[in-house]
Every structure is written in structure tokens, then in C-alpha cells.
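Archive maintenance. Older records in this collection stored only the sequence; we are now back-filling the structure field for every entry so that each record is complete. The fields below show one back-filled record exactly as it appears after the update. Entries are processed alphabetically, and ATP synthase subunit b, chloroplastic is next in the queue.

ARCHIVE ENTRY
Title: ATP synthase subunit b, chloroplastic
Organism field: Tiquilia plicata
Length field: 184
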Amino acid sequence: MKNVTDSFLSLGHWPSAGSFGFNTDILATNPINLSVVIGVLIFFGKGVLNDLLDNRKQRILNTIRNSEELRGGAIEQLEKARSRLRKVEMEAEQFRVNGYSEIEREKLNLINSTYKTLEQLENYKNETIQFEQQKAINQVRQRVFQQALQGALGTLNSCLNNELHLRTISANIGMLGAMKEITD
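Back-filled structure field:
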């Protein structure tokens, strides 16, 4: 067994001239191995790496383009919204101005209609007063006439005989009929 172990140990110490063997010196072999591995990776992985980088570049460019399109759409929507806002503000201002003028117009209309109503009420009051005065005057006339008639009838009844009494009554009835036609 010692021979087998010696043979593995001696493999690490083989002379490099003309023979093949393992170099166990880590510091001497790593830069060579690394340069070989990197060279192989660059040679075979160059196309794959370029494809990956190109795909990533295209995705980034597409994202930028989409972002620009979305930004343009957002700016357009913002301008439309600003335009609508200006339009609504102008309409609101117009409604406010129209509202104030409408309020003033309604106020004047109300004042005028109140004035007309007061005028009509004053006219109705005056007509009612004139009507009541005329009614009172007619009632006083009727009473005076009735009293005068009763006084005249009383005087006639005491002074007249039947024949004269009948003629006087007929004349008075004729006068009353004529007065009634005048008052109607």
C-alpha cells in the first residue's frame, strides 16, 4: 500500500520535461486555467451574450417608446382637461353674471308687480268708498223722501176728503213712478 501512496505522491513531482502530469501548484495553474475558461466562454458565449444584451436593449427601447407614447397621451388628455376647465369656468362666469342680471330683473319685475297690485288695491278701495257713499246717499234720500211723503200724507189725510184724497194719491203714485225710472 505504501507503493500506491508513493506512486500518487510521485505523480505530483514528475518532471515537466517530456511527460504528462498534474501540476499541483495552485498559484501557477490558476491564471492559465482562468484565461482558458474565459477564452472559451468568450468564444462560445459571445453570441448568446450579444443576443441577451440586444433583447434587453430592445425591451428598454420599447419601454421608453411606450412611456413616451403614454406621456404624449397624458399631455393631450391634460390639455383637453384644461380646455374643458377653461370652458366650464367661462360658462360658470356667464351663469354667474346672467344669474345676477336675472336676479336684478326679477327684483324689478317684483317691485313693478307689487306697485301695480298696490295701485289696483287703491283703485278698488276708492271705488268701494264711492260705492258706499253713493249707497249711503241713496239711503238718506229714500228716508228723507219717505219721511216727507209720510208727512205730506199725514197732512193731506187730515185736510182732505175722500175724493181729493184719491186724486192726490194718484198724482203722488205717478210722481213716484217717474222718480223710480230716473233712479234706475
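Update note: The chain has a mean pLDDT of 82. Residues 35-142 form one domain.
Entry marked complete.
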